[in-house]
Every structure is written in C-alpha cells, then in structure tokens.
Amino acid sequence: xxxxxxxxVVKRYGKVTVLSGVSFSAEKGEFVVMVGPSGCGKxxxxxxxxxxxxxxxxxxxxxxxxxxxxxxxxxxxAMVFQNYALYPHMTVAQNMGFALKVARRxxxxxxxxxxxxxxxxxxxDHLGKxxxxxxxxQKQRVAIGRAITRAPEVFLFDEPLSNLDAxxxxxxxxxxxxxxxxxxxxxxxxxxxxxxxxxxxxxxxxMNGGNIEQIGSPLDLxxxxxxxxxxxxxxxxxxxxxxxxxxxxxxxxVGFTLxxxxxxxxxxxxPGETLPRxxxxxxxGIRPEALGDExxxxxADADVTVVEALGRETLVYSDAHTLRTTDSESLDGYFxxxxxxxxxxxxxxxxxxxxxxxxxxxxxxxxxxxxxxxPIHHK
Amino acid sequence: xxFPPTSKPAGRRPAMxxxxxxxxxxxxxxxxxxxxxxxxxxIVAVIGSFFDFSMTSANWTYVGGANYRxxxxxxxxxxxxxxxxxxxxxxxxxxxxGGAILAAILDRGIRRGGVFYRTIIFMPVVISSIAxxxxxxxxxxxxVGPLNAVVKALGLPTPKLGxxxxxxxxxxxLLLIAAxxxxxxxxxxxxxxxxxxxxxxxxxxxxxxxxxLKAFWYITLPGIRxxxxxxxxxxxIGGFKVFDLVFVTTGGGPANATQVLGTYTYTQAFSFGNMxxxxxxxxxxxxxxxxxxxxxxxxxxxx
Lengths: 379, 303
Fold this sequence. Notes:
heterodimer, A: alpha+beta, Rossmann fold, CATH 2.40.50.140, 2 domains, 6-stranded mixed beta sheet, 6-stranded antiparallel beta sheet, elongated, B: mainly alpha, MetI-like fold, two-stranded antiparallel sheet, 12 helices, 1% strand, globular
C-alpha cells in the first residue's frame, strides 16, 4: 500500500480550476519532488495535502488513513515553508518543541526530541537564540528541525531553499538528501528549480496548468519526456525546439521538413511509437549537448551570437537566420549548444549545426511525445 | 577641474565635523521649540510650585513645600486624581479593548467594506477635541439633543438634570465621548499590528496543532504585545492629561463630579489666582506623565 495517496484531487477557487483531478502516490521513505512553473498548482497541491487548503473533490490518505477532511495537525504531516515561518517570539528550542508543547507532552520528552533534532541538523549551539539572530540557512534548519521533532509520517517542503543564496542552496540540497537517508522518511518537496528536482528526487512529478504531465525518475524524465513541456522543463539549458511538417511517410520512416528547399530529415520510428500523418505539424526537439560540428544531419548554418564559458563546458547561442527555434531560452529563436570548453567558438563565427538522427525527439501538435531520442553516450 | 565641486569632497574628519554642524543646525528649530514651549515652562512651573503668587503678583513668596502639603490634604485634589484614574481605567478598557475588538473584526470578521469602516471609525481622531466636545454637547443636550429624543421615543427615562448635568452619569458620558473620539486611533494601531503577523505563522501553528484560541494565545497575542503596550500607555497618559474635553463640556462640574487634575489646576490658577498651588499640581501631573512616557519609550524599545 502506498504511504501517501492522492486521488483525483480537484481544487477550484470560484470559477478558476487550479488542480484538475490530480492523482499520484508515494511509497514509504520515498523522496518525491513536485516541479513546475509558477501557477502550475504544485504549491496548492502540497497545501491541500497539509490541510491548509480545502479541496473541492478527491481524497488524500496517509499510511492507509483517509485524511481528506482531517485538521492539519491530525494528518501526520509537518511542513517547511519557503520563508521559514518561525515564531519570532520563541527561541529556537521553543520553536522546535512548539507542536509537542501544544500537544501537552511531558517536558522531558520535548527536550529529548528537540535535542535529537538539533543534533541531526547541527544547530545545538543555537537552541537558546531567537530567530532574528540567525542567518537564512540557520533559520531554514530550525524550520526543518521543527518538522523533525514532530516525527511526521510525511514531510512537506514548500520551496524551502528559494530564499537562500546559490552556494547555500547547493549545500542544503546535499544536507536534505542526507537527512532523507538518515530519517528514512517520506518526503514531498515542491520547487520550481529543476536542478533541485533532478538532484534530490527519487521520483519527480512534473506539473503544468493544474495537471500532472509526467511522473518518473530524474533520468527517465530527461531521457524519455512524455510531453514537449517536460522536455522543455527538465534539462538546462532548455531543449531546442523547431517547428516542422511531415513531408514523407514510408513504413516506419518519417520525413520532416527542415526549411524551404531542403531535403527532409528522415527519422526511423520504433515499433509501438505513434506515427504522425502526412502534413501534420510537429515539433522537433534536440538537446543543446547533442548539437555539434559533427553528426549525420546538417540542421542549419549559423552565426555565433553569444558565448557563455561555464568552465567545464561552454554554452553557445547561434543564429540560424531562416530556421528559428520556438519557445527558446534566449527568446530570440537562437539555437543553444553545449560544447566542451576547449572548443574555440568565438562571437560572430560561422558554424554548422549538426546532430545525429538518434538525437531528435518528435512531439505532436498537442505536445505528446511521438518519438524518443536515444540517450547520449558521452565518449 | 572643469566643474567646481558641488560639495566639499573633503577627508573623513572635516566631513564628520560638517555632519555634526549640519545635524545641530537641522535639529535647532525643534530644540528651540521644545525649549521655549516645554522645557522652560516646566522649569518655571517646578520653581513656581515652591512659591505663593498670583497672575499679577509683583513678589513671589517662598513657601517651601507648603503647596504640596496643601495638595495632600485637599479633598478636591484627591477627587480629581480619582476621577483621572477612573478615566484612565475606563479609557483603557473602552479604547484599547474596543479598538482591539474593532481591529479583529476588520482584520478577519468582515469580507468587504473594511476600508470604508476603518475610515469612518478613524474619522473622529482627526477632529479637534473642542469640536468633538461641542458636537457631543449638542447630542446630549436635554432640550434639543437627539439622544434624549431617541431615549424618550423608546419609552425609557432620561436623566432629569441632563446627561452631562447629572453627577452620577456625567463622568461616564465623558468616558463615552473620549472613547468615540479615540477608539479609531487604537484600532488602527492594533490593526497594523495584526496585519503585520505573517499568514504563514498561523499556518505553521495550525500544523503544530494551535488553532482558534490557542493560535490567539501563542501567535496573535505575542505578535501584537508591543502594540498593545504602546496603545495602553498612550491611553493612560492621555487619561491623566485630559483637559479640553472636560473643560468644554462640564468645566469639571456638576459639583466637581468630573473634576480632573487638568481642570482643577486651571481653576486654581485662573479662577482663584493660586498660581503656586496650581504649579504644584501641574508638577504632579508632569511627573506622572513623564514617568509613563519614559516607560513607554523603554517598552517600545524592547520590541
């Protein structure tokens, strides 16, 4: 039986539907990350599970118990908020022990729980301080400690690292993963940051417009995105998308236009993949790391417009003039390309954009994936 | 250099010196005003409290602590103080308590019209006390006032001597007028305090098991504690200093029923010409207000 089960959850605010029938489940001890752009409903879903929002229909159960209408404190969940939400007039220790105090647990028990949580989070030195004397990272540790002392069935995290600076964020990512291993607890984590999702999750739930687009392991989502949305959301820099038409159909071989007066690009569809029809408008996707000087397919000639040296590799944006990408990161329809930093791409340089046939992903007009790329094997 | 500098790009020392000079210059008007209108009169009052003199006296007679001893044995002085205390306690209950209830209603209780009600309730705060007093004298007038008309229409008895003329209720009436005038101010203070508590604190508390009364006790009350202390102190000080409202409506009457330190001091000074005695009472009031003011500053710094 799943530890956390969310079934057909609908949430409406008046006429606006924020969640339109969302279902998923999490096993005991699983770290599940819900990711999506702002307004996709991920926070509302988390808050609905916490009991801070009343759902319009559907059900939520934790450890086999239906908690759809239970009070927030009776659900067996603890939540960590984005802006910490520490009680300013209580010390760190009082903050962490507050839930137990409200539940009228004996003092000794509260102290043991607080001490243990403080040790796990290495904040023992700060127990007597007030929140205003703490840094952002310390505050978030206290907020996590407050959750730990309650020993909940499910931990809920609502973008807990968004208020921290980049260095602290990557450090806290590692700590949260460690914490998850140590506690073995079920954790549900909301973020809009796909790096957090990729690095921490056992499974990722990608949400968009109040629906779940795809659920899967980080690499699953990266290698086999179910929709164009997931393909664009997971992976940084974004996948390049090109609009194309089906020009040729022969068995499982499908030819796509790559621009006026150019030979079509033939891709072999695997058995089981849905074939498009002749004339269909589709989107071709190709990851930035799959674009290079070599490859079976010549996609376009282009001029380098932006070079961003990232150290290990270099991010190159180039302008292919007649062939433009849609929905791209740079917004100008440029192609994004990740190349080894040793390569000597310079601003204004004329380059060829090439890729192997196996690197292309094909999406139908409704966004569903028709044809997957093969995972890239780096040499 | 093509352009002359607009300000002296001097080293650190001269800049600080200039800063100190300009700071003094900036504060000078306020300091002069405080000195002329508060500090010097206060000093004169303290000195005068040890003398016997009248408005037109050429000579002041030194009497030592006689004025203070006189106050200690003057039943009217003690009546005035007890009336002040009555107003202080009544005002804290009606203004801070009432303001808190109104603030809570505006914060949570109503869905729309919050700004409208807030404005309406706050409006009397900006009216001068003299005008408020006159408006209420009209309302409470036993012959033409609307209050009597309403009470009579309901078939209830009205006070024979009038609302302000009956010694047993006139002080209550003053309390009511003061509350009407000031409750909006306290409401605004407390409302600001309530709205400064982040929503997440209540959400975190509800997950921690604190809802309703417990949330009020553990989250709301500590959150507005400083504001409540401030509101109470403002009200207490106002209650001791009250003068204009009483002076205009009842003048301390009937039969000293509404006599407060402010009006009694005024009466002794300008009706009976006992300037020395009036000064002594003014000093008592000053010390009380100063102590409370110091307390207010201390408590508000703690938050």
